[in-house]
Amino acid sequence: MDSKLDLIPLAQWGLFEYPRPFLVCGPCSAESEEQVMTTARDLRAMGLNVFRAGVWKPRTHPGSFEGAGVPALKWMQRAREAYGLKIATEVAGTKHVEACLEHGVDLVWIGARTTANPFLVQEIAEALRGTDVPVLVKNPVNPDIDLWIGALERLHREGVRKIGVIHRGCSSYEKLRYRNAPQWEIAIELRSRYPQLPFFCDPSHMGGDRSFLSEISQQALDLGLDGLMIESHCNPACALSDAKQQITPAELKDLVESLIVRDQTSDDLDYRRALARLRTRIDVIDESLLFNLGARMRVSREIGKVKKENNISIIQASRWDEVLSQAARTARTYDLPVDFVEKIFTDIHEASVRAQNDILSSDEDY
Ligand code: PEP
Ligand code: MN
Questions:
Q1: 233 CB under 6 A from ligand 1?
Q2: Which CATH class name applies to 10-258?
Q3: Atom of ligand 1 nearest to the CA of 113
Q4: Which tens digit of pLDDT belongs to each residue from 285-298?
Q5: Which fold has domain 269-360?
Q6: Are 207 and 213 in contact, with CB atoms under 8 Å apart?
Q7: How confident is the model at residue 265 (pLDDT cuts 50, 70, 90)?
Q8: Residue minimizing CA distance to atom 3 of ligand 1
């Protein structure tokens, strides 16, 4: 996908009102007409514009509540009429899209499990061809940025121009603090490749617990994201899905009011000068980092030649352990996170091993 992609800016979707963060909130699932109406009314009262609810639910285990289906769309339609809200739901195939179009759904999103399936994304893209319905694409469950971009490309190829993304973290085998690992680096990478792409975060599914909503939402805003999708239910304790991570509309109001919204940019001259000065310093530091990496690599190749001449294997575990623990110690003295430094050194070590391998397998005599 071309980074100069002709997407329609969020401000022209006709869904959100300023100020940031733009919100898409509502229950995980539409469970009953009463639950939808009560939640929608209270959310509207706190100033919400776009109401979400899951109509078809992709559940891990069969037999769990799998959504109320088309009747739920009618409840949402009613909430739309009664409270002047725009309505949003998840689609996972042609039939879902068709039902949404019939019921005047204003925004659809593609769930994390569906983004991971190009067949389904293609089907959805084709079903949306020629319509004006905006689509938010969640990241795939696995941390694969290309799969995410592929989904955006499929929609774009079918003529969809109101496209945005939702970062909701990635699943992992290990049990983490959060339900889904944030892997912000993927969001940051996508954000820098497509700066014009409307960008949301879903702290509800990322955290998996209401106690994490505030910290994740703030992180998302600090990264300059445009909006948040947060699950809110009139009675979270009784929710038929994702009970632990939902909050009441009143709690949502408090949460949103407590967030610090940072400007994405400023025309203030002092700010611009200070930023330009600091960025110049960063550029100089980056240059010296790269200079030193180059120097290190040359020494590493010298070591490779010495090993070759003496018929010594490349990997020497004890030396590597020594390098890594030295790096960790030094990291502490410079107040750097140890895991970050270890990650960098692991990459550097891999590149050195590769370079030495090339030397060992080449026919040249040193
Ligand atoms: C949801 O938003 O209700 C949902 C199922 O989310 P995800 O696709 O991120 O798991
Ligand atoms: Mn949910």
A1: no
A2: alpha beta
A3: 8
A4: 999 999 999 999 99
A5: Chorismate Mutase Domain, subunit A (1.20.59)
A6: yes
A7: confident
A8: 28
